[in-house]
Automatic annotation (TrEMBL):
Top-level taxon of the source organism: Bacteria
Region (Disordered): 352-373
Gene3D superfamilies (alphabetical): 3.90.930.1, Histone H3 K4-specific methyltransferase SET7/9 N-terminal domain
Protein name according to UniProt: Toxin-antitoxin system YwqK family antitoxin
Length: 400
């Protein structure tokens, strides 16, 4: 693959002074320069970006003004290099970063991606590689970190994920392993923590979680819950356990919403303070000796409202703030053992969107494995050029 990449790079010649043809390539922020033969684009075309770019460019593939190109476009580096045969993209395709270094190295056949595909970080390190057939991912695809370590390995069939996929932590340990069928989760599913313990584990069928599942609580450490899914939602009794699997409390769900909880089991008698009825009330978490670890509101069957967290075996608050659908929102205070605020952090919905170490896009975390990896959508394309063929969107979507 890497040999092919360097071979492809060598195909692209230095910038030449070609003035036979000037055309917009998708929108008025990009102009391609190349040769015209019998009224059709032919040979190598270099596409340059406008500097500064218009905020609202006009979609266009029409001829461009050469004088406008020379005055307003950055000619230091092309953002694309495309080869044409009789007006149709055929042959090597190169996309560059603004600094001129390669971003995507690929081939086009009849205007769609075909063959080996490589994507690179801005520093030149390999980001991902695989093969494309008729514009769609095919076979094994791998993604790498900037340091060269593998992040994930997936298998595709006609552009859809198929079979087993795996992802890794930066140190190389397994982070997740899942199975796909026709682009949907299907089969065993497991996601691990950095210490290799299970974070969430279960089974999918046709993209829907089914059967027995186990998951580690995120809002408070030291607890697992296990139970069954029906029609894609938690249903019936789930068991709250400690890390060793000892039963602590029953949770009752209906269509994915927590409806009620049973009595908390501990070695010492507990004066139950919390009560949840019909998905609403106050919930308490205790350690095995009956000390309060956390307390807060449950509304609409999930953690909502103000929550308090405590130092072990004490009544001293370690943190407090608002949860919304089990997610931290707003300003959270973190306290010293003496009660002084030692830190404040503001959370919002946007900050919940991040990338995991696997490089796969992540949205808000969810307790529902239906949301996949807490929201990962592993079949999203990283480059935005798959399946588009030769159209306005091919370059317009690249935001030049």
């Amino acid at each position: 693959m890497l040999t092919l990449v360097f071979t492809l790079l060598s195909v692209f010649s230095p910038i030449q002074s070609l003035d036979s043809g000037y055309f917009y390539f998708g929108n008025t922020n990009v102009i391609g320069v190349g040769l015209i033969s019998e009224g059709e684009k032919t040979g190598e075309w270099k596409v340059y970006s406008k500097s500064p770019a218009d905020q609202n460019p006009i979609a266009s593939l029409e001829p461009a003004d050469p004088l406008d190109f020379k005055k307003k476009f950055n000619q230091d580096f092309p953002v694309f290099i495309v080869h044409f045969e009789k007006g149709v993209p055929n042959g090597p395709f190169l996309e560059n970063y603004p600094n001129g270094k390669p971003k995507v190295v690929a081939n086009l056949k009849g205007g769609v991606l075909e063959g080996d595909f490589g994507e690179f970080y801005e520093g030149g390190e390999l980001h991902s590689k695989g093969k494309v057939v008729d514009g769609k991912k095919e076979g094994e695809w791998q993604e790498y970190s900037e340091s060269g370590k593998i992040i994930s390995s997936m298998t595709y069939s006609k552009g859809l994920l198929e079979g087993k996929g795996v992802g890794y932590f930066p140190d190389g340990d397994l982070e997740w392993e899942v199975n796909f069928k026709n682009g949907e989760f299907d089969g065993p599913y497991a996601y691990y923590l950095p210490d290799s313990t299970v974070k969430i584990q279960g089974q999918y069928a046709g993209g829907i979680p089914v059967g027995e599942w186990i998951e580690k609580l995120e809002i408070i450490p030291g607890f697992y819950r296990k139970g069954a899914y029906q029609n894609g939602f938690k249903e019936g009794e789930w068991q709250l356990t400690n890390l060793e699997g000892r039963f602590l409390q029953a949770e009752n769900y209906k269509e994915g919403k927590l409806i009620s909880v049973g009595k908390f089991q501990s070695q010492n008698p507990i004066e139950e303070k919390g009560k949840i009825k019909n998905g609403k009330g106050q919930r308490y978490f205790y350690d095995e000796n009956g000390n309060v670890l956390a307390k807060g509101k449950i509304t609409k069957g999930t953690e909502n409202g103000t929550w308090f967290f405590y130092y072990p075996e004490s009544n001293r608050i370690s943190a407090s703030g608002k949860l919304e659908d089990s997610e931290r929102v707003g300003t959270w205070n973190f306290y010293s053992y003496e009660g002084e605020i030692i830190d404040q952090t503001t959370y919002n919905m946007e900050s919940s969107f991040q990338s995991s170490n696997s490089g796969l896009p992540r949205s808000r975390k969810s307790n529902n494995p239906r949301d996949s990896f807490g929201g990962f959508v592993p079949w999203q394309e990283g480059t935005g050029i798959f399946g588009q063929g030769w159209s306005l969107n091919t370059f317009q979507n690249r935001k030049y």
